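Journal club side-thread
Mid-discussion, someone asked how the predicted structure for our own chain would compare to the paper's figures. Pasting it here so we can look after the session.
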Amino acid sequence: METRNFQVGQIIFRAGEESGEAYRILKGRVGISRIVNGNPIVLALMGEGDILGEMSLVTDKPHSATAQALEATEVEVMTEDEFNRLILKDPERIIPYLSNFFERLRTVIDSLAVESQPRKDTTAQVRSSSETPTAPVSNEAKQWVVHLKADNHLTEERSPSPEVTVEKFPYRLGRKEPSKESNVFLNNDFTIGDRIPFQVSRNHCSIEREGSQFFIRDRGSRLGTIVNGEYLGIHATRLKAELKPGKNLLILGTDSSEIRYAVTLEAPEDPEQAQELEQLKARIDAATADGKLSQQELDEIKAAIYADQKVTAEEAALVMSLMEKVSQGTIQMGD
């Protein structure tokens, strides 16, 4: 299969473009965003092994979002002809793509199941060692950090790591299977050991991001997911719950499950980083104050963003917003 390389900041595909291709990240990081009311909303941060653009192989429709390299990135390119050839001659090669297709299918099926459920109380009586946070996530361009940490000794023993910092979204949690062979029905980043009677499903839940909001989504688990006392799942009325700043209690399974995690959402105080982001915003505002932007000014802005060869989601959102205004004619490009 063909491979392609993208430099930091380079667009892999834009929303509305037709390519008939899917991409698997071999190295690097990619941001997925969509324009909402003229502003880019970051939907996902993807890394090595992740698949993007796969629905264009199935639906024959334009891409619904934009993909941009956040650092030097190499991708494997899958075309429709290549997919059809491999499914007959080398099906092992397309297991990652099939796993993504099945993940999408589960999401659609679960959404339909929840919509058909009658409304009911989904509040669980949960034993918690901390207060449930109530403050909403600010829409400011903060660089939020998500930590996942085992909340008790049993969970720590059954987890691949007692604590991780989540750097990609969606970040999928599921049950660890005994077989090490590839399984097209499994698609997890964090696998948890469990014993009969299982509380954790093979594909249980995920930590996701949408703009400045972070949330937990149940992925069609058998017993459901509980976030800060609220039931999620196909037998409840909701599939996702927003994370609040501070500590959030995540329970996989019923309210008696011992598989519990603290999901902490925080914006670390980094005066230098915050100052750099504010300076970048001020620079863009000053350069476009008259509704015009020269190529030199654009090149200088990009150089400032990509100087360290790595782009944060917040920086990517700023440059995507700028380029969207240029493409819409809100800002005119000049010499």
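Post-session note: The first strand starts at residue 3 and ends at 6.
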